[in-house]
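Following up on my earlier thread - several people asked me to post the actual chain instead of describing it. Fair enough. Here it is, all 129 residues.
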Amino acid sequence: MAARTFKDLVVYQKAFSVAMDIFNITKGFPREEKFSLIDQIRRNSRSVAVCIAEAYRKRNYPAYFVSKCSDADMENSETQVWLEFAHACSYLDQNTKTKLENVNLEIGRMLNHMIEFPEKYRRKGTTNS
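Reply from S.P.:
Thanks for posting it. Predicted structure:
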């Protein structure tokens, strides 16, 4: 069954879920990280889901769709770097880091599929380019 809204996309659901996991995990980070690491990792992780929603709403315009999916992929990659910093600062244990990274990698693969095959996400019966 085709997605009726962006919320039906598995990639959106995974991106939203990992952003919420990061939100909850970062509640335990030191206060001195509030305006740097915490702010950045939360913002980047949330932006993945936001960009997916924006892309889906413009899915009949392939260039825009690909651009927003590419933005989501960029934000997803930035989130992975912040996870590296959090682990290097001993705020994340290895198991949590690995779990989050594995989901991010899966999201990245899904986004790359969307970028490579935008026509698969178009509304049925439309011909816009």
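Residues 62-88 form the longest helix (27 residues). That should answer part of your original question.
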